[in-house]
Structures are given as structure tokens and as C-alpha cells.
Amino acid sequence: MINKKHPQYMEDIRNVLSVKGIERLQGKRIIVTGATGLLGVHLIDALMALGNVSIIAVGRNRERAAERLGEYFSSPLFSFLEQDVMLPFPEDITADYVIPLASNTHPLAYSQYPVETMLINLKGAEHALELARRCGATVLYPSTVEVYGNARGNDVFTEDYTGVLNLATSRAGYSESKRSCEALCQSYGAEYGVNVKIVRLSRVFGPTMLMSDSKASSQFIKKALAGEDIVLKSEGKQFFSYTYTADAVAAMLHIMLNGTNGTAYNIANDNCNVHLRDFAGLCAELCGREVVFDLPSESERKGFSVAMNAILDTERLRNSGFTPMYTMKDAVARTIHILKND
């Protein structure tokens, strides 16, 4: 379990709170679904550290919430709503901002629960937008690099990139439902005037990861924590954009406060564009082990991305005034040091 008093994690929180205009959130109420996930925990830790911000954390499991966010349960600024995001919000709930983070975001979930993956995304977005419509809130919608499909050669994903999509796989449920959610966000803006800002997140990693996460980056980090060789399920030639959690959360808040309504922003860090084998190599180096190659099982393969290049263009994010803070090596080292509590 993460030690939230670790000096580097506390520094991460301070860095998040250096976002331009963060003081404007004081006195506001923010609803966060998927509150116990990788981004949800880091986001709530930052907002609670800011102070004078009312948080409604939404999740399906109070016990897990107590493990991940229990230190806030006695705070008058924090409340936990135990509810499935596929259900509408209670009529008496209001907010200034809604951030619907709930989603199946790792490969095993894609392959084992493709229907649930789609419905969680679609219904979660619908209910967030309906709440915002009812009470005049702003929605920060967390989308994904997956909406771009596969790159054409070495193309870089700008926000108007259409990519190459393959619907003949159950894994498409994640990317296609996220694309539909973005369209739903634009539709609520056009028809009902709901304020929506969209962030398309690159692959995110950091110390608030769930140990059940089956993403390659999480597997590398878990092996490093255990002092074991890093297992790579491919040749590692994939070239992806990554973002450390503190940079991702800071960028999300920056766009929520300073971005343009109805606009999508890629969230990535140019310093963290790496080949998968190099990510694995960083983890192996930090734990004094080696990278070993192992072919995936059929079940694992179903959930894997077939993308070989997924690099996000960050010009729009940079032009909005945001600059990430971490290098790849620093981000990987911080993740491992914080989780090892050393």
C-alpha cells in the first residue's frame, strides 16, 4: 500500500497544486467517479491537500475506498457515495465539476468483460453529463489515446487524427465506447449547453496504481518491487507516450480550469515517449535484475493493444500553458521508491 507521507509523493502533490488557477477550486464541489483508481486516488489526494474543496468520491466498494481513501472519511469536506456508475446520480446531488474516471482500463478487463467495459464508459458518461445538465456543472471527460486506433506508419496523433480502427475484436469495445462518449460530450454541449472539456490521456503509470492492474507498465513495476526479472510479453519494439500520474493529474486540472469548452487535449509528456523494452529496462535497472521475454497466453493476447506506435502530439497542451515536470527515468524511479517506501 502506498505511503502517502512519503517525501516524494508529498512533493508530487505540491507539484499538482502549482497548476495555474488552482485557487479557483476553493469553495467548489467536485464529483469524482472511479475514485479508488490510479488517477482517482492521486486527484483526490491533491484536492484534499488544497483544502476548502468539497469532494464526493463515487465507487462500487466502500471497503476498497476505505483502504485507498480512508484517511478522509472523517473530513467534513469528503463524502463517499457507494454506487455503480451505470445508475443515475441521486436527484439531490449537485456539483460544480464532474470528473467521470470510472472505467475498465487494463487488458484483462477488456478481454474478460468487453460488454461491461463498454457499458461502464457509456452509462458513466451519460449520467455525468445529465448531472451537469441539471445543476450547471462543468464536465472534465477523461478519454484515451485508444480513440486514435492504430497509427499509419510513424504518424503522431494530433487531436484531429482519425487513425486506423479495427472493429472485429472485442477489445474495440474500450476504444469505440470512449469515442462514443466523446461524441456524447460534444452532443450535450451543442444541444443542452453543457460545458465539457476532454482530455485524451496517454498511458499513465505511478505509485497510486492498483496491484490488480494488468497493463504492461504495471507488470514491470510489480516485478521491480518484488526484486524479480522484468517479463516482456513481446519484442518490446512498441513506441508509446507515457505520463506519470502527477503530471497527468496536473494536466487534467489545468485543462479543467484553463482549457476551452468543447475542445479535446492530448495529455502526454514528450520526455516520456519510450519503447516498451526501454521502459522494462529502466525497471530492471532499478531493481538490479534483467529483462526476459515471454510470449503471452491466448487470454492475455485478446486484451493487448496491437498498436506499434502511439505517440501523442502535445502542441495544443503546451499552447494552453502547461509544462510537465518529470523525466521518464525520474518518474519510474519515484514510482518504485514510493511503493517500496524507501
Structure description:
The structure is a single chain. The protein has 342 residues and is of the alpha/beta class. The chain has a single domain (7-340), classed as NAD(P)-binding Rossmann-like Domain (Rossmann fold, 3-Layer(aba) Sandwich), CATH 3.40.50. 41% of the residues lie in helices and 17% in strands. It contains 12 helices and 13 strands. A 7-stranded parallel β-sheet has the order 3-2-1-4-5-6-10, sandwiched between helices. Strand 2, helix 3 and strand 3 (78-82) form a beta-alpha-beta unit. It is globular and about 55 Å long. The model has no long low-confidence stretch (mean pLDDT 94). This is NAD-dependent epimerase/dehydratase family protein. It comes from Palleniella muris.
Which descriptors apply to this entry?
Rossmann fold, seven-stranded parallel beta sheet, four-stranded mixed beta sheet, single chain, alpha/beta, 342 residues, globular
Summarize the structure.
The protein is of the alpha/beta class and 342 residues long.
Detail the poorly predicted runs: none
Average pLDDT, rounded to a whole number, is 94
Which CATH class? Alpha Beta
What is the total tally of β strands? Answer: 13
Q: Note the run of SSEs as H and E.
A: HEHEHEEHHEHEEHEEHEEHEHEHH
Organism: Palleniella muris
Protein name: NAD-dependent epimerase/dehydratase family protein
